[in-house]
């Protein structure tokens, strides 16, 4: 059932909730309950900081169904500070060009709608250029 | 009866946070498209939400900032209340989305409030009651909107997007104590939107006096008299900001100076953020306030009513305010767009 999938994934989608391996401390995203590094059981929740950098990116001009409203958009491979790499849209680029090594941070945004205006709105993580915070005395 | 509201136990703002989207539509663009360039500009420009933003996503970022400043875990919240007139769903609460995304669910009150531009302050008064009665230690209130103006309508110059969030809690842990509140409400039909309608309707320019000015002055005077205080007892003041002139004029009518309202007067640069309007002004004031400063806040919502608050800033402001981006950081992040991109971003072609 399509709807159930959305609420099962909400923790990781809304807040980048993954896992940390209790044996070797590897941070895991998306959560998979087995550590990809040491192959032991890893079920401890860990919420990621959301900070990372762009490792690769491309521009999507022919979007899949449900994503038309925001095309063209940039999809990037983002390496999180804690190690894992995630694929996600970049957003709020404004007039900035994405580049490899661009510092980004996680935001929660509308990903797509299901069944157009009648269906649910699917929210999840995207990344934006890191907000510049003014230097203060 | 002009009795102010005092909770049984003293309540304050423990954390606050703002959000302003990146895009700006200059008033000159609207004037160019609809008025041959001859219209007066009620604001310089307004903040416009991007195509993947809505009241929930903006409320979430403001709420994350408020929790970061509060230093309180989301599990400690016993209410997550969102005031808006642009909730993403007609039926399905923004409050539940927000509570779950923050990690406050499931042992929590969560719901949506609606009172035109004062839905956020209405929720704040309720949260003061919840915390002040001892039923809860912490409650989150948000005012957020992606305001819609019909293309060509006078409201289009100012109808903007933004969010402001506050964690309320016991006064001993507050960065600003709430001294008292007072509200003034009547049935005055100055601005409304019927069920199923996309854009609001309003009584044009003649509604300023009986709606905005009457309700704000009555609420503000009621609170000042009840506290036996005058405008001179306050360092800062902020009033609902539907355009640049109204808050300046109402401040003058009440006896507040231009200097007192300057830090919170954001409307020329971001427009009217509706449910966030007075509250986002308050976040900008808290970004610069010093311990001991008093702040006077009065919202206005069409339909119509005003909530007035008197606050006193504590020492805790100094260590908490840099735990999240300041409101001016968001305003400085600015990308100007033209009317065509605005039409696409706000879905104005899909009718």
Describe the structure.
- The complex is a heterodimer of chains A (137) and B (351).
- Chain A is built from two helices and eight strands; from the N terminus they run H-H-E-E-E-E-E-E-E-E.
- With 137 residues, chain A is mainly β.
- In chain A, strands 6-5-4-7-8 form a five-stranded antiparallel beta sheet.
- With 351 residues, chain B is α/β, with parallel strands linked by helices.
- Helix content of chain B is 32%, strand content 25%.
- Chain B has helices spanning 27-34, 55-70, 94-102, 119-132, 208-227, 245-254, 258-261, 267-270, 277-286, 317-320, 327-332, 339-345, and strands at residues 11-19, 23-26, 45-48, 77-83, 109-113, 138-146, 161-170, 176-188, 191-192, 201-202, 236-239, 294-298, 303-313, 335-336.
- The chains are: A mainly beta (137), B alpha/beta (351).
- The A-B interface holds A 10, 14-15, 69-70, 89, 91-92, 94-95, 107-111, 121, 123, 126, 131-134, 136 and B 21-23, 50-54, 56-57, 60-61, 88-89, 97, 100-103, 322, 325-326, 328-330, 332-333, 335, 347.
List the main descriptive attributes of the protein structure presented here:
A: 137 residues; mainly beta; five-stranded antiparallel β-sheet; 2 helices; B: 351 residues; alpha/beta; Peroxisomal Thiolase, Chain A, domain 1; 2 domains; three-stranded mixed β-sheet; 12 helices; globular
Topology:
The complex is a heterodimer of chains A (137) and B (351).
Chain A: H1 2-8, H2 10-15, E1 17-20, E2 27-28, E3 44-47, E4 51-60, E5 73-80, E6 85-90, E7 103-113, E8 121-129
Antiparallel strand pairs in A: 1-2, 1-3, 4-5, 4-7, 5-6, 7-8
Chain B: E1 11-19, E2 23-26, H1 27-34, E3 45-48, H2 55-70, E4 77-83, H3 94-102, E5 109-113, H4 119-132, E6 138-146, E7 161-170, E8 176-188, E9 191-192, E10 201-202, H5 208-227, E11 236-239, H6 245-254, H7 258-261, H8 267-270, H9 277-286, E12 294-298, E13 303-313, H10 317-320, H11 327-332, E14 335-336, H12 339-345
Parallel strand pairs in B: 2-14, 4-5, 4-6, 11-12
Antiparallel strand pairs in B: 1-7, 1-8, 2-3, 6-7, 8-13, 9-10, 12-13
């Amino acid at each position: 059932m399509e709807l159930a999938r959305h609420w099962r994934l909400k923790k990781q989608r809304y807040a980048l909730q993954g896992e940390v391996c209790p044996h070797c401390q590897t941070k895991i995203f998306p959560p998979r309950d087995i550590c990809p590094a040491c192959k032991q059981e890893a079920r401890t929740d860990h919420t990621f900081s959301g900070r990372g950098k762009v490792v690769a990116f491309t521009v999507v001009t022919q979007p899949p169904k449900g994503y038309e409203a925001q095309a063209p958009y940039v999809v990037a491979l983002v390496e999180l500070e804690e190690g894992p790499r995630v694929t996600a849209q970049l957003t709020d680029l404004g007039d900035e060009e994405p580049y490899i090594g661009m510092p980004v941070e996680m935001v929660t945004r509308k990903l797509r709608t299901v069944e157009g205006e009648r269906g649910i709105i699917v929210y999840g993580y995207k990344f934006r250029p890191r907000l510049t915070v003014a230097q203060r005395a | 009866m002009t009795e102010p509201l005092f909770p049984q136990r003293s309540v304050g703002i423990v954390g606050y946070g703002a959000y302003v989207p990146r895009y700006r539509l200059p008033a000159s663009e609207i004037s160019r498209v609809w008025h041959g360039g001859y219209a007066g500009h009620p604001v310089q420009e307004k903040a416009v939400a991007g195509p993947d933003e809505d009241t929930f996503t903006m409320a979430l970022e403001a709420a994350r900032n408020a929790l970061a400043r509060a230093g309180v875990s989301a599990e400690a919240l016993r209410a997550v209340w969102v005031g808006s007139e642009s909730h993403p769903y007609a039926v399905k609460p923004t409050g539940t989305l927000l509570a779950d995304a923050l990690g406050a669910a499931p042992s929590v009150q969560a719901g949506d409030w609606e009172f035109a531009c004062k839905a956020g302050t209405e929720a704040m008064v309720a949260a003061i009651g919840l915390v002040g009665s001892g039923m809860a230690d912490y409650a989150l209130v948000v005012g957020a909107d992606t305001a819609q103006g019909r293309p060509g309508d006078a409201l289009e110059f100012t109808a903007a997007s933004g969010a402001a969030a506050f964690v309320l809690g016991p006064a001993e842990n507050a960065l600003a104590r709430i001294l008292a509140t007072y509200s003034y409400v009547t049935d005055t039909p100055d601005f409304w939107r019927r069920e199923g309608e996309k854009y609001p309707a309003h009584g044009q320019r003649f509604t300023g006096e009986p709606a905005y000015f009457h309700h704000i002055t009555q609420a503000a005077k009621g609170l000042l008299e009840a506290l036996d205080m005058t405008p001179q007892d306050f360092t800062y003041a902020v009033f609902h900001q539907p355009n640049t002139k109204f808050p300046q004029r109402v401040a003058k009518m009440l006896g507040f100076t231009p200097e007192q309202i300057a830090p919170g007067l954001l409307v020329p640069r971001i427009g009217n953020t509706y449910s966030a309007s007075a509250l986002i002004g308050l976040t900008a004031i808290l970004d610069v306030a010093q311990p001991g400063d008093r702040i006077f806040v009065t919202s206005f919502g069409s339909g119509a009513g005003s909530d007035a608050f008197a606050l006193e800033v504590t020492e805790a402001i100094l260590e908490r305010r840099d735990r999240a981006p300041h409101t001016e950081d968001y305003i400085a992040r600015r990308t100007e767009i033209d009317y065509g991109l605005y039409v696409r971003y706000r879905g104005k072609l899909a009718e």
